[in-house]
Specification:
Elements: H1 2-55, E1 60-65, E2 74-77, H2 79-85, H3 89-92, H4 107-118, E3 123-130, E4 136-147, E5 153-162, H5 164-214, H6 217-233, H7 235-249, H8 256-277, H9 279-285, E6 293-296, H10 297-314, E7 318-323, E8 330-333, H11 335-352, E9 357-367, E10 370-379, H12 401-407, H13 413-423, E11 427-433, E12 437-445, E13 447-448, E14 476-479, H14 483-495, E15 501-504, H15 507-516, E16 521-525, H16 533-547, E17 553-557, H17 564-570, E18 575-578, H18 583-593, H19 612-629, H20 642-649, H21 653-680, H22 683-700, H23 703-714, H24 720-747
Parallel strand pairs: 7-9, 14-15, 14-16, 16-17, 17-18
Antiparallel strand pairs: 1-2, 1-5, 3-4, 4-5, 6-8, 8-13, 9-10, 10-12, 11-12
Helix pairs in contact: 7-8, 7-10, 8-19, 10-11, 11-13, 15-16, 21-22, 21-24, 22-23, 23-24
Length: 748
């Protein structure tokens, strides 16, 4: 029994030990279960936080499987992906990222991406993808392999940041850099070309110096004349300045018209002065002809006195006339040359007379029984030394060097005077006492005019107030394809009192408007796209053969060459005006063509009142600056006539800015057309583009640009090398104009 008890006790002990071990194991299991529950809870929390972070991240996140051979399939995308691409998650899950690629997705980048991931390495780079709507966008991509516990890659996670704005900015920077480099290259090219020109000019200069040494003294005198002729160009400006001041101070009373007419004549003198100073060369070459016409003698003389009267009064000088009443009222002689000689002599007297008086004398005389007119200009000026009287009429001669320094002048005026008088079969002379005064005189033969002969109209062509009887409600259609020209003609007509103005931008549109509406006159530009003014007028005339009506058409064109008016008339137009439009000429044309009886009268202010002459004078003065400025030394430094701009904007800065913006927008378009026609060697497109820019520049008052375009239009069929120089000249003038306007806008 003892052995059995021992074995039983041992068994009990063993059971007790195993029970303790089981209890310990259960306790350990409970601890591990608690730890596992805690760990799972932590994992679930971390998973929730990670998912929330991924889902709500600003960057696009894509998770794919690791099947690089067949194309990894998308298994997850976040909200940022949907917002960026436009694809919902259900549309892309199960598909490959190729769905996001397009024609501009870089294949080289895709190959590098694949190679990197095959090696188990992370990839970082930039790639262009496309949205669901086909819009491209740039991405900064970071792709990381995801491995399991055994280190095997099971997935790829891509984090993509939208960098489209940055890429666009970089592209713009690169474009600006390229443009800057092109500008540098262009500057270098221009500098090289200028150096070549300078070298050529240097060679020419050496040749000229050599030729000058061999030339006769007369040739040397001509060179001096060309160097000093600017002073002679200022002679008619005396009249312009004097009358302008008088007009401003007159209060626009009854003297207004007389003063305005004198101002206008001074402007015309300025226009013709260049031809006048070249008379010496023409005379020597036998190319100057005398043109004898019937005219009122005393009226012609009074005009000269009126021209210089304001300036004489400003200087405290008395200017008077002594006219022989027995002289014929009408004579036949060269009116233009007689007035030119008298202007030279009176201007000479004004220059050398500081106090006292100037008299213009006209007497009837004869030579060997043949009637002659004696003219003299007598002054109380400095006089001429006796030993200088014999040479006073020689070219480029002054009494002494101090005279030139004190009074200026080229010494050309009296030489022209002598040769003009000689051409008129007359004689000229001078009587003078030093420090007492001088009398310059000339005699010329003349013819007697028949009583029935119509004399030359010595007054300007403007209409008197009583002659302006165009109703304000006249219906006008202005046709021009250039927006700047449309604005100018509309504003011009409105300032002249016409508010019933409609616009058309080509001939086809004009014909449609004429068919649908009633107009009293059409102002038609000649060169326009779709249907030009010539063709439009011809179609209008064909239609009128059926209706029996006739619409007055006035051509408005930038061309002013011989034959342009005839071309307009051949195509059925009634009359012709060249740009810039002179308001007095436009009023004359309209009045002569419009059938006033067909216009319904208004209840009040039926006709243009006399104040319109104020507008005509103001506008004419501004428009006239365009013609004058090419002969003005001071205007050569200013690329834009601001008075011309203010005429249409009344000085309103905002309106000026709008006009500047519109002009430069259209000018850039014309310049682009010029460049394209140059590249394609399209001579007709070149001519049309130059013409279009010329017309708008003329109305705008941009005279340097206008003449550059005019030169390009006239020489449309020259070699490409010459066209290239013209294009550079036009571009430079346009840039200079832009700089001037920018500076003006900053200051105002």
């Amino acid at each position: 029994m003892t052995n059995i008890e021992n074995e039983l006790k041992a068994l009990q002990d063993r059971l007790a030990e195993e029970q303790e071990q089981r209890i310990a194991s259960e306790n350990l299991l409970k601890e591990k279960e608690f730890e596992l529950q805690t760990l799972n809870k932590s994992l679930r929390e971390n998973s929730r936080l990670l998912e929330a972070t991924v889902v709500n991240a600003n960057d696009s996140i894509i998770i794919t499987n690791a099947d690089l051979e067949n194309g990894p399939q998308i298994v997850y995308v976040n909200k940022a992906f949907t917002q960026l691409t436009g694809y919902e998650a259900v549309e892309v899950i199960g598909k490959t990222p190729r769905i996001l690629q397009g024609k501009q997705t870089n294949r080289g980048t895709l190959e590098r991406l694949k190679e990197t991931l095959l090696r188990g390495k992370p990839f970082k780079g930039e790639l262009k993808n496309y949205t669901k709507d086909g819009e491209p966008y740039w991405l900064d991509i970071s792709i990381m392999p995801i491995r399991d516990d055994d280190g095997i890659i099971t997935h790829f996670t891509a984090i993509e940041r939208n960098i489209t704005e940055r890429k666009n900015f970089e592209k713009e920077i690169m474009r600006e850099k390229e443009n800057a480099e092109k500008e540098v290259q262009e500057r270098i090219r221009i500098e090289t070309q200028m150096q070549e020109y300078a070298d050529k000019l240097e060679l020419i200069r050496f040749d000229a110096v050599d030729a000058q040494k061999k030339a006769e003294s007369a040739s040397q005198a001509k060179s001096e004349f060309l160097a000093n002729m600017s002073h002679e160009l200022r002679t008619p400006m005396n009249g312009i300045i004097g009358m302008a001041e008088m007009l401003l101070s007159s209060g626009l009373d009854v003297d207004q018209r007389e003063n305005a007419e004198a101002l206008h004549r001074s402007g015309e003198n300025l226009l013709s002065i260049l031809n006048d100073i070249l008379d010496i060369s023409k005379i020597e070459a036998g190319e100057l002809n005398i043109e004898n016409v019937p005219f009122h003698l005393q009226t012609a003389i009074r005009q000269i006195v009126q021209l210089f009267l304001p300036l004489a009064e400003d200087r405290g000088l008395k200017i008077s006339m002594e006219l022989d009443e027995t002289a014929p009222e009408l004579i036949i002689a060269d009116l233009g040359r007689i007035q030119q000689v008298l202007r030279n002599l009176v201007n000479n007297a004004m220059k050398f007379t500081e106090e006292g008086s100037i008299s213009l004398i006209m007497r009837l005389t004869d030579k060997q029984g043949e009637p002659q007119i004696y003219f003299a200009v007598e002054d109380t000026g400095v006089g001429i030394p006796k030993d200088k009287l014999d040479t006073i009429f020689e070219k480029f001669t002054q009494a002494d060097a101090s005279v030139t320094r004190k009074f200026g002048g080229t010494g050309l005026g009296l030489a022209i005077t002598q040769q003009l008088v000689t051409l008129m079969d007359g004689e000229v002379g001078v009587d003078s006492i030093e420090n007492e005064g001088s009398t310059f005189w000339f005699k010329i033969p003349f013819g007697k005019a028949d009583e029935n002969v119509k004399p030359v109209n010595l007054y300007d062509d403007r209409m008197d107030n009583k002659e302006i009887d165009i109703p304000k409600n006249v219906r006008i259609l202005a046709v021009d394809d250039h927006p700047v020209n449309q604005i100018f003609v509309q504003k011009l007509l409105r300032r002249l009192g016409f508010n019933n103005v409609e616009l058309a931008e080509n001939g086809e549109m004009a014909l449609e408007k004429i068919e649908q509406n009633q107009y009293d006159v059409v102002l038609m530009d000649c060169q326009m796209p779709i249907l030009d003014g010539y063709q439009a007028t011809m179609r209008l005339r064909e239609a009128e053969q059926i209706t029996g009506e006739h619409m007055p058409v006035i051509a408005l064109t930038a061309n002013a060459m011989v034959g342009d008016r005839e071309k307009c008339l051949r195509h059925g137009m009634d009359d012709y005006l060249s740009k810039p439009i002179r308001p007095d000429k436009l009023m004359q044309k309209m009045q002569s063509l419009i059938d006033v009886s067909s216009i319904a009268p208004e209840n009040e202010d039926k006709e243009i009142n006399v104040d319109i002459m104020t507008e005509i004078t103001a506008i004419e003065a501004a428009v006239g600056n365009i013609d004058h400025c090419e002969n003005s030394n001071e205007a050569q430094d200013v690329p834009l006539d601001m008075e011309q701009i203010r005429m249409f904007t009344d000085g309103d800065p905002e309106e000026e800015k709008q006009l500047f913006d519109l002009f430069f927008t259209q000018a850039d378009l014309s310049l682009t057309s010029l460049k394209e026609s140059y590249d394609e060697n399209d001579i007709m497109e070149w001519k049309n583009a130059a013409h279009k820019l010329k017309g708008s520049a003329a109305n705008f008052g941009a005279n340097d640009l206008r003449y550059a375009c005019e030169n390009a239009e006239k020489q449309y069929d020259v070699e490409q090398q010459e066209k290239e120089e013209m294009l550079h000249n036009i571009t430079a003038n346009l840039e200079r104009l832009k700089s001037y306007v920018n500076e003006y806008c900053i200051q105002h």
